Amino acid sequence: MKISTKGRYALRMLLDMARHQNDGPVALKDVAARQHVSKKYLEQIALVLSQSGMLQGTRGHQGGYRLMVDPKACTAYDILTILEGSMHPVACLDQSPNNCARCNGCDTLYVWEGLDDVIQQYLQGITLQDMLDRANVH
């Protein structure tokens, strides 16, 4: 499993927005400048996050984006699954129950299930607020 730049930049963008949300709507040009990321690329990410309900955009002179989720309740897993889709390490775990033809005789299934559990527990255990708090310490 590899997290794409969309997933990585989405975390950075939302962290930046959470940090600046008290200033009103956050302009993507400002996020792009602070994060050294293309504004065009952030627009693509913002569109997906807006469609999911995580962000709300406002047009106009004072426009920008607002977080529509509580940073304390929004996890890295939530964000990454919106941008990346499945976070499961193997395709057979994408369905529940597992309907893989080899499921009952797969000698390595426990490895993938264990890895899946570790990934989910780790990413679901980190909130946007946790990232903010850690960033403020450094």
Q: Find the count of extended strands (DSSP E, 2+ residues).
A: 2
Q: How far do the termini sit from each other? A: 29 Å
- Helix/strand class: mainly alpha
How many helix segments? 6
- Adjacency order of strands in the biggest sheet: 1-2
Sheet of most strands: 2 strands, antiparallel
Rg of Cα set:
17 Å
Flag low-confidence runs.
Answer: none
Instruction: Based on Cα principal axes, name the global outline.
Output: elongated
Mean pLDDT: 93
Helix content percent band? 40-55%
Approximately how much beta-strand content do the residues carry? Answer: 5-15%
H-E string: HHHEEHHH
Could you describe the 3D structure shown?
- The chain has helices spanning 5-20, 28-35, 39-51, 76-84, 109-124, 128-137; strands at residues 55-58, 64-67.
- The protein is mainly alpha-helical.
- α1 packs across α6.
- The chain is elongated.
- The mean pLDDT is 93.
Pick out its properties.
mainly alpha; 2 strands; two-stranded antiparallel ribbon; 52% helix; 6 helices; 138 residues; elongated
Question: How would you briefly describe this protein structure?
Answer:
This protein is 52% helix and 6% strand. It is mostly helical and 138 residues long.
Write the layout of secondary structure elements.
Layout lengths: L4 H16 L7 H8 L3 H13 L3 E4 L5 E4 L8 H9 L24 H16 L3 H10 L1
Antiparallel strand pairs: 1-2
Helix pairs in contact: 1-2, 1-3, 1-4, 1-6
